[in-house]
Design a protein that fits this description.
By secondary structure, this protein is of the alpha/beta class. The chain has 15 helices and twelve strands. The longest helix is centred in the last third of the chain and has 19 residues. It starts with a helix and ends in a 6-residue tail after the last helix.
Length: 441
């Protein structure tokens, strides 16, 4: 719900600013609405271009029962639910519900596709720890691939806390990532640990011991992703030279090779609403911090080590940069007023930031502000350290697998040890591919 709410706000905030018909702001509103919504039968209420799936009916039923201020809603024909969950079991979601709910999900998807004849990209929102989001989510990805093979598929995958949400989350993550690597075009990863830390900054008086709600974390995740996917042009609008960057342009740029599909989104600034009136941001500052966050593979602008720089910017003769993150490709989006091209774009064009000598950078710009921020910068990258977490995942899961821990829970749904072994092989290859992107020590 928060995902679509942010898009509606983007449309109506621009409309409330007395946008003139034919102006760039008016075009932005139209493109935002067309990209994520379809006009309803009454001609007024927008219908979200979405299919809702959950094997527990509470959340989906709640979404369908609400009409958000009469502005937008979901199509009840594009929803699939059940009365029991998947019990945090990937095999239950994939093998069991994937079979029994396949026809119902297929019908819901085709209902949506009927109103989207020119669909280029499908975004699937899912988690990797439980059973429905991970297991059934993977099966749905394969189903959509079969129904519309020409559409690019992007899976936005929320990864669980490293300390553990469920005892078998390592298995579920392993099976999820290995399955998606064979059916999806890109995996946009969101780590719960990082977003929990980031959320604490937005709530006054919270400490490292305070519990942060999933609602607050989801709000942040949706902001990071929305800022990347909302309309932007390839040149500043006032120059009248750029063209609209479509979602398929972004995916094809970020994933030039099928071995590298792991993406991360970053956003600057991330500040609480009560602090915005006292914060003065500049494009120079946003570009400086965003690039350093990319270099250190962090979505948080605190604790950055500024001595880690590209080789060409080091002043000493000992130019070792083994801690430098390098990218396959990057996409940056500037949203707001008075975008200063050299102060942002040039920072990300440094050749040392990329695996190949040819710079792999795509830039987007929009004069429309995002979430009441006068200036905001978004970065989505395909970089070497996006695969760092795979080493711990493989190590922990392999130890459990060798001990035969919890395997019986998966075998009862038809998922055998050979399936696990194949998944280990797939993710080990992904880990090696991303590790080989880093400069040799």
């Amino acid at each position: 719900k928060q995902w679509y709410q942010r898009r509606v706000r983007a449309v109506y905030r621009e409309q409330s600013n007395n946008t003139r018909p034919g102006s760039s702001a008016s075009a932005y509103c139209r493109e935002t609405a067309a990209r994520f919504f379809t006009p309803g039968a009454d001609g007024g209420t927008l219908i979200a271009n979405a299919v809702l799936v959950d094997m527990e009916n509470k959340v989906v039923a709640g979404c369908l029962s609400r009409r958000h201020a009469g502005v937008w809603t979901y199509n009840p024909r594009c929803s699939v639910l059940s009365k029991q969950g998947s019990g945090n079991n990937w095999a239950n979601g994939y093998c069991n519900f994937g079979e029994t709910k396949e026809e119902e999900i297929s019908v819901a998807v085709k209902v949506l596709l009927h109103s989207l004849p020119d669909l280029r990209v499908a975004l699937l929102l899912m988690s990797a720890a439980g059973g429905t989001g991970s297991g059934l989510g993977c099966r749905i990805t394969e189903l959509i691939r079969d129904i519309v093979p020409g559409v690019l598929l992007v899976n936005q995958v929320v990864l669980p806390f490293s300390q553990g949400e469920v005892s078998v989350q390592g298995y579920n993550m392993l099976l999820t990532l290995s399955s998606l690597y064979q059916s999806s075009d890109a995996l946009l990863l969101s780590h719960n640990d990082s977003y929990q830390t980031l959320s604490r900054r937005l709530i006054p008086g919270t400490s490292s011991r305070d519990c942060i709600s999933f609602r607050e974390m989801n709000r942040l995740i949706s902001s990071h992703v929305a800022g990347v996917l909302l309309p932007a042009s390839s040149a500043k609008e006032e120059e009248k030279k750029g063209r609209l960057i479509h979602c398929d342009d972004i995916v094809e740029h970020l994933v030039p090779h099928p071995c590298y599909r792991l993406l991360t989104a970053r956003m600057m600034p991330v500040i609480s609403e009560h602090s915005r009136d006292y914060t003065n941001t500049t494009w120079e500052m946003l570009g400086k911090y965003s690039r350093q966050m990319l270099i250190q593979n962090s979505i948080i602008d605190e604790g950055l080590i500024w001595s880690i720089k590209p080789r060409s910017e080091l002043l000493t003769t000992n130019k070792r940069t083994q801690n430098l993150n390098v990218s396959v490709s990057n996409y940056i989006v500037c949203r707001g007023s008075e975008v200063a091209l050299p102060e942002v774009e040039d920072r990300f064009k440094v050749a040392d930031l990329y695996r190949n000598e040819k710079t792999k950078l795509l830039c987007g710009y929009s004069a429309a502000t995002f979430d009441k921020l006068d200036k905001s910068l978004f970065v989505i990258d395909n970089s070497a350290k996006n695969g760092h977490f795979l080493e711990d995942l493989l190590s922990d899961s392999w130890l459990k697998f060798q001990a035969n821990a919890f395997i019986y829970q998966y075998e009862k749904f038809g998922l055998d040890r050979e399936w696990f072994k194949e998944s280990f092989n797939v993710i080990e290859k992904v880990r090696r591919d991303y590790e080989n992107l880093l400069p040799k020590k």
